[in-house]
UniProtKB/TrEMBL annotation:
Name of the protein: Flagellar basal body rod protein
UniProt family annotation: Belongs to the flagella basal body rod proteins family.
GO biological process, one term: bacterial-type flagellum-dependent swarming motility
Protein's UniProt keywords contain RNA-binding: no
Iron-sulfur found in the keyword field: no
Protein origin, superkingdom: Bacteria
Alphabetical list of PANTHER family matching this protein: FLAGELLAR BASAL-BODY ROD PROTEIN FLGG, FLAGELLAR PROTEIN
Any one Gene Ontology cellular component term annotated for this protein: bacterial-type flagellum
Keywords (A to Z) from UniProt: Cell projection, Cilium, Flagellum
Name of a matching Pfam family: LlgE_F_G_D1
Domain Flagellar basal body rod protein N-terminal as annotated: residue spans: 5-35
């Protein structure tokens, strides 16, 4: 009987985490560059039940011992681009492809969640591009929030106050006022006097394995292992475009996360009733059966 209590309690914890994840997504519906988070649940290892009689053991079957929320997975799908009209606002429009290793000249067909599953079950995620920023400790961070500003000495700063990097990994600085911040579709800064690229480009990192990124909050991510994430700066062959005067909206699917939140609440409630049932049964066993 107690095993059922533990299983129901594990279910309640899992559903609470699912509910928390859904409410986090809803709270960030209008957060620039926010990427939806999905909670992934898995079952605990099964237990093999056997019956022993007269020194002979006979297998009865397997017993599931509950479920747990193993991890939270970020969805890096493109969000809608919203025009802001501000020269220091930028958005990335990307459609990065991966060549099929089994068919030269063709590309993997990613599904709606941005992943491809091979016939062998191997999962490949669509590469993603991010603006590259740097914190005060010199750590590189990655964000899709292109709401930038220009500091008093010409340094370009992210919404979180981090230094925006150029394609050489150096802090991006301007020599004129904010209205001189002009870029082309590839992120090259334009010289106002000549109207031509100045030779400096906004640092846009292409991350081949975005599943290796770790969410830091405030719209930024970091990579514990940059080699495993396969991070590089973008080049002219990458299918991406920088849109000045635009911001990328959150990619949260409001309808789906609302359904997920309600489903988690109902499942939590069902597990709660199971625990109440076990509690009532134990109470009868202690108070009533003992008297007989």
């Amino acid at each position: 009987m107690l095993r059922g209590l533990y299983t129901a309690a594990a279910g309640m914890v899992t559903q609470q985490r699912r509910h928390d994840t859904a409410t986090q997504n809803i709270a960030n519906l209008n957060t620039t560059g926010y990427k939806q988070v999905d909670s992934v649940s898995h079952a605990f290892p099964d237990v093999l039940i056997s019956a022993m009689s007269g020194g002979v053991t006979k297998p009865v079957g397997r017993l599931n011992t509950g479920v747990f929320a193993e991890q939270s997975v970020s969805q890096y799908l493109q969000g809608d681009l919203i025009e802001s009209g501000k020269s220091a606002d930028f958005a990335l429009s990307t459609d990065l492809q991966v060549e099929d290793p089994d068919n030269a000249g063709t590309y993997l067909a990613f599904d709606g969640s941005g992943k491809y599953i091979s016939p062998d079950g191997e999962v490949t995620y669509r590469p993603q591009a991010f603006f590259t920023v740097q914190d005060n400790e010199g750590n590189n961070l990655y964000t899709r929030n292109g709401s930038f500003s220009v500091g008093p000495t010409g340094e370009v700063l992210s919404a979180g106050g981090f230094s925006v990097l150029d394609s050489n990994g150096n802090p991006l600085r301007l020599t004129g006022p904010e209205d001189t911040l002009k870029v082309d579709g590839q992120g090259n800064l334009i010289n106002n006097a000549t109207g031509l690229p100045s030779g400096t480009r906004i640092g846009i990192s292409v991350i081949t394995r975005p599943q290796e990124l770790v969410r830091d909050g405030n719209g930024v991510f970091h990579a514990d292992d940059t080699e495993a994430a396969e991070i590089r700066y973008s080049n002219a062959t990458d299918n991406l475009q920088v849109r000045q005067g635009y911001l990328e909206n959150s990619n949260v699917d409001a309808t789906q996360v609302t359904v997920d939140m309600n489903a988690a609440y109902r499942a939590y409630e069902a597990n709660q009733k199971v625990i109440q049932f076990y509690d009532s049964s134990l109470q009868k066993a202690v108070n009533d059966v003992g008297r007989v």
